[in-house]
């Protein structure tokens, strides 16, 4: 099982870096352009079939809006990239940690696709992007387990400042098909729950902590529900 896990993770990383090179070749003529994100998404979609991962998306109707919004997504492992491509809307700018800049061809492909690499201390750098859709991971780092980490307020401050709604998106625990500690990587399923938008119109900076807690609580409840958990423990 450990050898199988190693082989699959190695294949995943090789696919990531190899297909990134193809994306770079296709996208380089258009330079840094969020329209290139379509090519990056397409390069990851076959992985779900290769690994036998079935993804069920609930609440798709909550993404059927053309107005600007901030997409809030829980962060588990590097496999998030493969799963989230199923729901990433068009003209959406993901916000990534600067550490990804050092991931070789993948980081270049991400940059050409419009990904924004920021220092968490300088979130004001992306305020001008809120005329589009913005994707943010509020936990700030991968949880690597069957739980969610406390949310940072940066993304919520941006939403309130720009007066744009927040759309929470929850990905179920990967325990069914992947577990790093147990070295398990097998066919399985993942559920993505898109929650109704949370309006920020009329909210002020003082409302950010309460807004952050509200969204965090609703996402945690959804996470436990779609992950088949009781008291935070996976079945």
Structure description:
The two termini are 21 Å apart. Helix content is 34%, strand content 19%. The protein has 235 residues and is an alpha/beta fold. Helix 4 (105-112) links the parallel strand 3 and strand 4 (116-118). The chain crosses the membrane at residues 12-30, 36-57, 100-118.
Structure summarized in a few sentences:
The protein is α/β, with parallel strands linked by helices. It has helices at residues 2-27, 37-50, 80-84, 105-112, 154-162, 208-226; strands at 53-58, 69-73, 92-97, 116-118, 133-136, 166-171, 178-179, 184-185, 188-194, 229-230, 233-234. The two termini are 21 Å apart.
Largest sheet: 7 strands, mixed
Mean pLDDT: 84
Strand content: 15-25%
Radius of gyration: 17 Å
User: How many strands?
Assistant: 11
Element order, helices and strands?
HHEEHEHEEHEEEEHEE
**Which outline best applies?**
globular
Strand order of the largest sheet: 1-9-6-2-5-3-4
Tell me roughly what share of residues is in helical segments.
25-40%
The N- to C-terminal Cα distance equals: 21 Å
Q: Helix segment count?
A: 6
Structural class: alpha/beta
Keywords: Acyltransferase, Membrane, Transferase, Transmembrane, Transmembrane helix
Protein name: 1-acylglycerol-3-phosphate O-acyltransferase
Domain Phospholipid/glycerol acyltransferase: 69-174
Organism: Buteo japonicus
């Amino acid at each position: 099982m450990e050898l199988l896990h190693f082989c699959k993770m190695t294949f995943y990383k090789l696919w990531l870096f190899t297909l990134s090179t193809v994306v770079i070749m296709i996208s380089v003529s258009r330079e840094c352009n969020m329209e290139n994100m379509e090519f990056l998404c397409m390069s990851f979609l076959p992985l779900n079939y290769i690994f036998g991962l079935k993804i069920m998306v609930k609440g798709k109707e909550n993404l059927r809006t053309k107005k600007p919004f901030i997409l809030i997504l829980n962060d588990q492992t590097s496999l998030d990239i493969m799963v989230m491509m199923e729901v990433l809307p068009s003209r959406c700018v993901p916000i990534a940690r600067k550490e990804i800049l050092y991931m070789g061809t993948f980081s270049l492909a991400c940059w050409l696709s419009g990904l924004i690499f920021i220092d968490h201390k300088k979130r004001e750098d992306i305020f001008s992007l809120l005329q589009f859709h913005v994707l943010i991971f509020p936990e700030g780092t991968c949880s690597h387990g069957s739980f969610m980490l406390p949310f940072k307020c940066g993304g919520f401050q941006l939403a309130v400042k720009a007066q744009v709604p927040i759309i929470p998106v929850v990905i179920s625990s990967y325990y069914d098909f992947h577990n790093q500690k147990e070295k398990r990587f097998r066919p399985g399923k993942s559920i993505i729950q898109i929650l109704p938008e949370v309006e920020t119109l009329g909210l002020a900076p003082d409302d950010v902590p309460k807004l952050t807690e509200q969204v965090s609580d609703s996402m945690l409840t959804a996470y436990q529900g779609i992950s088949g958990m009781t008291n935070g423990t996976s079945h």
